[in-house]
Amino acid sequence: MYKIISPAEAVDLIKDGDCICVNSFVGIENPVEIHEAIYEKYKNTGSPKNLTIISSAGFGLWDENKNAESYIREGTVDKLICGHFGAMLSTKKLVLEDRFEAYNLPLGCISHAIRAQAGGIPGALSKVGLDIFVDPRLEGPGINKISTDDSYVKIVDVDGEEFLYYKLPKINVAIIKGTAADRRGNISFDDMYMSGDALSICQAAKANGGKVIVQVDKLVRKPSRPRNAIIPGCLVDAIVVVEKEPTESGYEALTGSFEIPSGQWDMWVEIIERLSSSHRQNSVVADIIGKRATKELKEDDIVNIGIGIPETVSKYAKETGMLNKITLTVESGGVGGFPASGPVFGAMIGAASVYDMANQFDLYDNGGLDICFMGALEVDKYGNVNSHRGSGAYAGIGGFANITAKTPTVIFCLSFTAKGLFVEEEDGKVSIVQEGAIPKFVEKVSSISFSGKRALKNGQKVLYVTERCVFRLTEEGLELIEVYPGVDMEADILSKLPFHVNVAPGLE
Fold first, then answer.
1. What would the pLDDT profile of 398-449 be if each residue is shown by its tens digit?
2. Which residues, 6 or more positions from 44, have their beta carbon under 8 angstroms from its beta carbon?
3. What are phi and psi of 41, to 5 degrees?
4. Is 11 helix (H, G, I), strand (E, B) or coil?
5. Which whole-number Å values give the CA distances from 49 to 20, 44, 75, 175, 196, in the listed order?
6. Can you name the residues that pair with 215 across neighbouring β-strands?
7. How does pLDDT run across 180-222, given as a tens digit for each residue?
8. CB under 8 Å to 296, separation ≥6 — which residues?
9. What pLDDT is recorded for position 280?
10. Rounded-to-integer distance, Cα 380 and Cα 443, Å
11. Considering the chain, what is the average pLDDT of its residues?
12. Which of 331, 426, 490, 508 is catalytic?
């Protein structure tokens, strides 16, 4: 039977050496008070220690001075396995300092491996990850020098087909954030942006003889309707009640707690964009790229749009009326709305459906998307892309590998150079006023997030859209297929590439 206890009492359920799985998504749905209680107990007693933390999409608050990560900084964690580290500002710095073992697996593969544990199966098979960094024949999932455990990803043969086998440590503590607990201990997620892998994490912890700790905003006497009770009370050991603080006006539209009238759709999208404006792209370069990339959309497409420059695709899809003719999706499980950005990335305004994250990655992994728009840090002559690891910085692969692995059309949206690039556009003509100091097209990418070789084998259409030109992937490598008006093909493109590209007929 569950107990209603304080954060400090809940943390007493966590023992040295436990493997904790946290059901957050980048910066949202984070049980912050439980994280803070772990920090306080460790600071006062030196326990719990030697922890392993698993989180499909990572967790954090986009602020390294806040306490969601403080116990990691203090040294409680020996091992961290995450799909993404974007909101974990202090943690991702410590990873590169070899402070603890850290592993980066594709977000969807972690999600599926958690679901496998929930069913008593050690791991999950996937073709996602073949020929990219996580493949043991390339780098493997270890991020730093001390992360050498080779048990998390293995190459296996099943009926003559090659797969990767993803296996996680046994989860014995689940930490979940929900909306409400009823008098039977059932947990609903009515006012949450997503439910993520909550049920699978709880089932995995119980299958391994562990504990389930759930933080909720409130208690309610009336039992939830059965289909709204994501976690049944029989799986819950401890409930921590922390009343929800008021949020900025507008965020309530992301919970699906009310229907947005058709005539107010644009108004609410603008409100959410304004709240997230500090994280949105707003430049001539991004606008040129987004406008061109949007032309690849077709009616009835099922779509995923990445963060950063690709977000401008949403803007131009809205301006052209295409937004009402396609179905957008987000990795956390939302379908059929408008993805939010910035601190609430993973939420969706006006979603038609929000289901478990593992189910969303079933869709992505089986080629259920029609098209995706992704960013890129580097691209090489073979069409390989690095999107997860910069020079001296690490964000992680997130859902990128799953989204791009089998989607029929993949559009990479990136500037030709970075750091100082200044471009003007007037009357449809592009002028490169100042070139960036950092080239984005390189002889060889430093780490592979997307394999051109694998994409060609899969028969995928791959374009690389920049602010001055467009390349496509061919058997011979990149081919230049478009040069924008005002751009000098030789001076602004070919002479600045460190490798040869073919030029499409008609451009020569």
1. 999 999 999 999 999 999 999 999 999 999 999 999 999 999 999 999 999 9
2. none
3. -65, -45
4. helix
5. 12, 12, 8, 16, 27
6. 177, 240
7. 999 999 999 988 999 999 999 999 999 999 999 999 999 998 8
8. 371, 409, 411, 463
9. 46
10. 5
11. 92
12. 331
Residue 334, SS3 per DSSP? strand
What angle do helix axes 311-320 and 284-294 make, rounded to 10 degrees?
A: 60
Decide if pLDDT at 279 tops 50.
no
Q: Give the model confidence (pLDDT) of 221-265 as tens digits.
A: 887 788 889 999 999 999 999 998 766 666 777 777 767 776 676
Q: Half-sphere exposure (CA, 13 Å, Cβ side) for 90?
A: 15
**Contact criterion met (CB below 8 Å) for 96 and 394:** yes
Closest CA to 21 of 92, 116, 133, 95: 116
Cα separation of 310 and 45, whole Å?
47
Distance of alpha carbon 358 from alpha carbon 117, whole angstroms: 13
How far is it, in rounded angstroms, from Cα 111 to Cα 123?
11
Give the torsion sign (CA, 244, 249, 251, 256): positive
- Return the structure tokens found at 356: 């478990």
As a whole number of angstroms, the distance between CA 373 and CA 281 comes to 14
Q: Is 36 a catalytic residue?
A: no
Instruction: Pick the closest to residue 27 from 63, 60, 74, 67 (CA basis).
Output: 60
- Tokens found for residue 62: 């986009």
Q: What is the pLDDT of residues 296-345, one digit of tens each?
A: 999 999 999 998 899 899 889 988 989 889 999 999 999 998 888 878 88
Of all helices (H) and strands (E), which one includes residue 116? helix 107-118
Rounded CA separation 401/387 (Å): 10
Tokens of 73: 């900084």
Q: Which residues contact 263 (CB under 8 A, 6 or more apart)?
A: none
Q: What's the helix, strand, coil split of the chain in %, to 5?
A: 30, 25, 45
The 3-class SS string of 216-258 reads ECEECCCCCCHHHEEECHHHCCEEEECCCCCCCCCHHHHCCCC
Collapse the DSSP code of 432 into the 3-class scheme (helix H, G, I; strand E, B; otherwise coil) and give the result.
Answer: strand
Give me the residues paired with residue 54 across strands. Answer: 21, 81
Name, in order, each residue with C-beta under 8 angstroms of 451's C-beta and a sequence gap of 6 or more.
Answer: 130, 131, 132, 384
Per-residue pLDDT averaged across 17-23, rounded?
97
Q: What is the pLDDT of residues 56-114, one digit of tens each?
A: 999 988 877 666 788 999 999 999 999 999 888 889 999 999 999 999 999 999 999 99
Helix axes 107-118, 357-365, angle to 10 degrees: 120
Distance CA 318, CA 130 (A): 35
pLDDT of residue 67: 67
First vs last C-alpha separation in the chain? 74
